[in-house]
């Protein structure tokens, strides 16, 4: 192995576990934060709105999955064999499906959740809808 590749492999051997640990930490902190929010809501109100808690937990899970995918990409880049590339493709496919489903549920919940912290997401959605409407109107004017 050329010196630059062996140096890169040694560096990645330290970086990959750190990236994986960051992903796990994000999920653990998200779970902890959600539990604290649930307990606080239980004792403060007696009735807990679950949608904001689910959004919060889902966001942590999505970000944690992104870290895990990044670690897998780095691992494959360090020592690429066809088996590793195939394994990575399958793994990324599975995680992408999970990520898509989580994002889809979060988008659905964000439509339900009406808290100030989610206002920017709604504003972006409204802006996109307005842009699409204007494009449609322009194309109709050009055709007509």
Describe the model:
- The protein has 144 residues and is mainly α.
- It has one domain.
- The protein contains four helices and no strands.
- The longest helix is centred in the first third of the chain and has 42 residues.
- It is flat and about 60 Å long.
- About 5% of the residues have low confidence.
Quickly describe the structure.
The chain has four helices and no strands. It has 144 residues and is mostly helical.
Structural class: mainly alpha
Number of helical stretches of at least 4 residues: 4
Q: Outline, from the CA principal axes?
A: flat
Order of helices and strands: HHHH
Strands, count = 0
Main sheet? none
**Average predicted local confidence, pLDDT:** 81
Task: Fill in the keyword field for this structure.
144 residues, mainly alpha, 4 helices, 0% strand
Write the layout of secondary structure elements.
Layout: H1 3-44, H2 50-78, H3 82-112, H4 119-143
Helix pairs in contact: 1-2, 2-3
């Amino acid at each position: 192995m050329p010196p630059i590749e062996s140096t890169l492999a040694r560096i990645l051997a330290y970086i990959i576990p750190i990236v994986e640990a960051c992903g796990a930490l994000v999920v653990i902190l998200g779970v902890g934060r959600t539990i604290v929010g649930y307990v606080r809501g239980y004792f403060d109100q007696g009735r807990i709105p679950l949608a904001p808690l689910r959004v919060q937990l889902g966001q942590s899970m999505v970000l944690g999955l992104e870290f895990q995918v990044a670690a897998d990409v780095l691992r494959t880049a360090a020592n690429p064999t066809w088996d590793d590339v195939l394994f990575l493709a399958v793994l990324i496919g599975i995680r992408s499906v999970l990520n898509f489903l989580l994002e889809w549920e979060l988008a659905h919940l964000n439509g339900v959740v009406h808290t100030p912290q989610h206002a920017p997401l709604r504003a972006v959605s409204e802006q996109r809808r307005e842009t699409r409407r204007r494009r449609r109107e322009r194309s109709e004017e050009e055709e007509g």
